Amino acid sequence: MAANYWASTQRRHWLFTREKLADIRDGLRERDKVTHSQFPLPDQRLLNIYFNQQLIKLGKRMSTRQQAIATAQVYLKRFYTKNEIRQTNPYLVLTTAFYLACKMEECPQHIRFVVGEARGLWPEFITHDVAKLGECEFALISEMSSQLIVHHPYRTLTELQTDLSLSSDEVALGWSVINDHYLTDLPLLHPPHVIGIMAIIIAVVFKPAHPGNFGNSAQSALAATMRDGGMNNLAYALSDKTGPGAPRIHKLVQWLAESDVDIKAVVECTQELLSLYEVWEQYSEKHCKELIGRMVKSKNLDK
Amino acid sequence: MAASPFASRSPSVAVTSPNTLRLKASGGTASKPTPMPDQELTEQLNAEVRQKYVKDKKLGEGTYAVVYLGHLRDDPSSFVAIKKIKVNAEYKDGLTMDAIREVKYLQELSHPNVIALHDVFSSKDQNLSLVLEFLPRGDLEMLIKDGDIQYGAADIKAWMGMLARGVWFCHENFVLHRDIKPNNLLVASDGEVKLADFGLARSFADPYLNMTHQVITRWYRPPELLYGARQYSGAVDVWSMGMVFAELLLRVPFVAGNTDLDQTSKICEAFGTPTEDNWPGVTQLPNYIPTDPAHRVPLQGRDFFLRQFPTAGPVGADLLMSMCALDPRKRSTAVQVLRHNWWTMDPQPTRNEDLPRKTGTKKMGEDLSRRGGEIDDGPFKNAARQLDFGAMK
Question: So what does this thing catalyse (chain B) (predicted)?
């Protein structure tokens, strides 16, 4: 964390309304209708899942901090609000976002190492040429107007851990929920503290019956619970003052009421996440890979 | 902007100045949908930013950047400094951490005592240019070294006040500067002192996350870094501030070691030998050097500072002492420095317009093009450490 979120470039330049974001994307599509019909791509969220999995693969090979992966995902989102994905080689952009994010989060990796590992993963799409990545980094920085600091919701979670007496299971689940929100547009729509609080509520209210290791994503643990009860469950849990775990939830509700946090925004985030978990059921890595591969190859974007 | 991640873009629309002019002439910039789908909106914006400035003469060149004087195209009297970051021409290895850090922090920090970043643009040969506030009156090092310039306690108080406010602002925003020294403190045309060169800056690490100890130019480096501490705080900048304060008073660097080891022993001689008594935990630091009990210098008290720095006065000496505590936990924080009685005592700080002045545009060029941690003159010119990428955390 650096600088003040309220005065940050993130808040001033990279926070959109849903309508604005839709306009931007329509604009990109309008400018290149032909390519759009020629190269259909999966739902943005499915693509995000795919990119996220690729980033994790890359990160794992170099033992990177989670925060750098998160920053890289936000960079991808910012970049693709300015550029049509069908004009780019997503693998190169992905690798570059990762390389730059590592520098930004103070865990730098040597460019040769990054290129080497990326080639190991996607040999058809990444060339030996280190200069390519250097050039793309430059483009990435330009497209983001050199506004590179990203404020993440993880801090909200760790800071409120004591105040709200969250258990370690709840923190772990909340952490996974935050990891998942990078698969949606939420980082471009809401400030990090709103997302952090959304993660806490989900973790406390939908606490799964069998806590344990949630891995990187909360999807498997939460999808079923959330689908069954959905928002009713949430509303019920928040108003119920007698059921099991009620004092905890009561405390959370109390805290929320006293805080100035935008509850409507928090609920909106919860719904967004819920629909992500629904879309996730259709995810097929193979399908994404094929469509992207076909696009990159037939447009010669990897050259 | 370079078109690197994009595959097909005809050479005719590569971003060059004539093209931008054509765009402008046809009136097709931001308002209407652009007639050229290949011309990205951001490229236009970048070109517009670049067109806003005119580059004039070169002010200086260093290992890391070339600095030019420039001005707004619309207003020839409004000067800026354009810092063009050098890219390694032979093999492009991506932007250095210095460049990244500088852009990263200056984009977010805005304060009267921190150099302002007006714009960033890129040029077709893949260089990043930072448009910085133009600070024509040199730096504090020049004022300290120039024997023709007389200054007194009130002037020092004014300069130190501006420095302390700048450092406080960085710390308040969770940024460590990590290279505070007189030649990074530049003077604006109105006399305001501005903290420059954020090439070594970083945000406070999360607790228990390691950082490199290879930062801050040696003479201004605190003992915990010399002992290899990997977890530290704003106290490192406060020590550097104390060293600048001492240097302003004496007009020579107060502890100027030839090597890191020499620096440590000079600090011990000057301020006292760190022991478990005066600095609990010091012996556990990675590069701690055990001292011979027979040669231990006792921790210096108030009289020492009064004797060494008579011009500071008793209250000023007390402030300096609080900034030079060996144990970083006992050292003043930037806020505590600002709350010290010294500021409200007589003499009152000199008003900016009455401060001693010197003109030094060439110096700004040198200051901005240097790599962090380098001392640019004297016998240690080549002793600058290169930052080790791998060790940097």
Answer: L-threonyl-[protein] + ATP = O-phospho-L-threonyl-[protein] + ADP + H(+); L-seryl-[protein] + ATP = O-phospho-L-seryl-[protein] + ADP + H(+)
d(Cα B47, Cα B22) in Å, to the nearest integer?
A: 12
Q: B273-319 pLDDT, tens per residue?
A: 999 999 999 999 999 988 888 888 999 889 999 999 999 999 999 99
What are the CA-CA distances from residue A72 to residues A52, A69, B231 (Å)? Answer: 9, 5, 26
Name residues whose C-beta falls within 8 Å of residue A85's C-beta, 6 or more positions apart in sequence: A41, A47
With contact defined as beta carbons under 8 Å apart, do A37 and A54 qualify?
no
Q: What is the mean pLDDT of chain A?
A: 85
B contact residues 46-65, partner A, Cβ 8 Å cutoff: 46
Interface contact A131, partner B, CB < 8 A: yes
Does some domain include residue B181?
yes
Q: How far apart are CA B194 and CA B163, in angstroms?
A: 7
A-chain residue closest to B130, CA distance? A146
Distance CA B220, CA B200 (A): 14
Domains of chain A, CATH where assigned? 17-25+42-150 (1.10.472.10), 154-280 (1.10.472)
Q: In this predicted structure, what is the pLDDT of residue B379?
A: 36
Does A70 have pLDDT greater than 90?
yes
DSSP state of B185: E
Interface test with B, best of A26, A64, A142 (most B CBs within 10 A): A142
Per-residue pLDDT of A225-274, as tens digits, reads 665 555 555 655 555 555 555 677 788 888 888 888 888 899 899 989 88
Cβ-based neighbours of B77, under 8 Å, separated by 6 or more: B71
Structure tokens at B304: 């020492």
The interface residues of chain A toward chain B in range 71-110, judged by CB-CB distance below 8 A, are 82-83, 87-89, 92-93, 96, 99-100, 103-104, 106-108, 110
Which residues 139-178 of B are in CB contact (within 8 Å) with A?
Answer: 173-175
* A contact test, residue of B83, B107, B169, B209 with most A CBs within 10 A: B107
The structural domain count of chain B equals 1
| Domain assignment of residue B25, yes or no | no
What pLDDT was estimated at residue B293? 84
Does B218 fall in a domain? Answer: yes
| Chain B contact set for A140 (CB, 8 A) | 5
Concatenate the DSSP letters of all residues of B114-175 into one string: B--EEEEEE-TTS-EEEEEE--TT-BHHHHHH-TT----HHHHHHHHHHHHHHHHHHHHTTE
Of all residues in chain A, the percent with pLDDT exceeding 90 is: 36
Look up residue A175 and give its two tokens. Answer: 């952490």
Question: What's the CATH code of the domain at B196?
Answer: 1.10.510.10
Q: Which domain holds residue B226?
A: 140-383
Mean pLDDT value across residues A133-150 = 88
pLDDT digits over B92-148, tens only?
677 888 888 899 999 999 999 999 999 888 776 667 889 999 998 889 999 999 888
B122·A138 Cβ contact <8 A: yes
The pTM of this model reads 0.80
Does B87 carry a binding-site annotation?
no
What is the predicted pLDDT for the residue at B221? 96
Residue in the structure block whose two tokens are 């200069």: A131
Closest residue by Cα to residue A55 from A93, A105, A83, A84 = A93
Spatial contact of B326 and B271, defined as CB atoms under 8 Å apart:
yes
Q: Is the model's pLDDT at B387 over the cut of 50?
A: no
Q: State both tokens at B74.
A: 């619309």
For A277, the token pair is 């978990």
Bridge partners of B193, per DSSP, are: B187
By three-state DSSP, how is residue B347 classified?
coil
Q: Is residue B132 part of a domain?
A: no
- Kindly list the catalytic residues of B: 179
**What's the N-to-C CA distance of chain A in angstroms?**
37
